[in-house]
């Protein structure tokens, strides 16, 4: 199979490479071993051992580009799945066609021309979008500011009017704490009722607070609800 | 976060007053506070009210500009995509590959075939128009033996079409607030938030929940957000009313969320209720009441 090559040419490398691959994949192997074989049989490793032999010969001044080119579709020997996986994992670096890896994209300009009206138009659109985002952000921030001012004003009024209530309102909720009334109640309850009381933790968001979705639940709002006694 | 800032701000203010009496600013503040306390020598009558909020169920509808921009961006993305390795993901010649090819063609047509279509304004849930046109047809060949997918529920509920203000399914995108029709401090029938007096030894958040349940029933799963009041309403009362009530009237509002259930007013003091958005509340409510409450309601 190996011919004596006077110069390291593409054809030479190809032959060497083909030979090595055929040796490796001649025997049929079980599926689990197959993938390992594909991964282990890295082109670089194969090529190094054979290239050494080739490179000992007289080298030309200009070395042609070493490219990775695999055996075509030799389905007779092995599983086509192996070829497909190999082609996905180790894509060819020959620059003649755009590939999923995206290493060579000569047509980007043309495709962009098709997609956008012009550079100026694109920039205008981008500016309009950022302006719109700024409006949205400002509106949100101002609404939050108004809400905060309302809370602060209310707390200040409470402080002047009812200092004891103010002190209580300022107390931080400890999620781990349980009032004596709660512990007494939990002793009496069982099953789902107990779970319902335990689940609602003071100072934390309840689980039932639903995240907004694109479409509503099929059954809509739950109007039937039996009250649960929860001591605050 | 916000609550902590408020707390720290309040604490610092009080600390400044207490620890530096010799400084001129603090002495002025002390004088003013003492003056204020002497003027309101009568006890203050405090009411606790609850603003019950039904949070949005649905995501917001994108505006026309937003949808146009997303369509434009998806077109650019599609133009700059690397070729998709179909041979890796689909078996050559399989049904799935054909289905994918068909869907890809539709997507390509959608992105480049023409301007983003304006007739999709009611279905604003799709941000880029790509997925909107893909419909899984109930053909057997298309389905490949899969069960037909039920279409999702519509964003517009019956309550929207009828304008049923008592329904909690109405206007899924917006924040709805519970407003009840009952007597206010002057005995007049007005639209207001549920409120009630404080009992002895009770705290604000306890009183708020109790008053809410007294007025609107217990068939609601309510979560009170925190102990701090979010707004305060102090009506300007004539002297006679102040004397009869034995103090200035303050109504402190607390925020709560409804998670399940429905309001069932007892009927004694409360005649009617409604779940309304901010714009719908404004015309129904008294002017000074609205001034105290408008900042706390969400615009959306």
Automatic annotation (TrEMBL), chain A:
Keywords assigned: Mitochondrion, Ribonucleoprotein, Ribosomal protein, Transit peptide
GO-annotated molecular function: structural constituent of ribosome
GO biological process terms on file: mitochondrial translation
Cell compartments where the protein resides: Mitochondrion
InterPro entries: Ribosomal_mL40, Ribosomal_mL40_fung
Gene Ontology cellular component terms for the protein in this record: mitochondrion; ribonucleoprotein complex; ribosome
Annotated Pfam families: MRP-L28 (PF09812)
Family the UniProt entry places it in: Belongs to the mitochondrion-specific ribosomal protein mL40 family.
Protein name: Large ribosomal subunit protein mL40
TrEMBL record, chain B:
GO molecular function, one term: structural constituent of ribosome
GO cellular component term, pick one: mitochondrial large ribosomal subunit
Domain Large ribosomal subunit protein mL46 N-terminal span(s) in chain numbering: 46-160
Transit peptide as UniProt keyword: yes
Gene3D superfamilies associated with the record: Nucleoside Triphosphate Pyrophosphohydrolase (3.90.79.10)
Compartments reported by the entry: Mitochondrion
Keyword Mitochondrion: yes
Residue stretches making up the Nudix hydrolase domain: 177-288
Keywords assigned: Mitochondrion, Ribonucleoprotein, Ribosomal protein, Transit peptide
Family to which the UniProt record says this protein belongs: Belongs to the mitochondrion-specific ribosomal protein mL46 family.
Name of this protein: Large ribosomal subunit protein mL46
Organism field: Dichomitus squalens
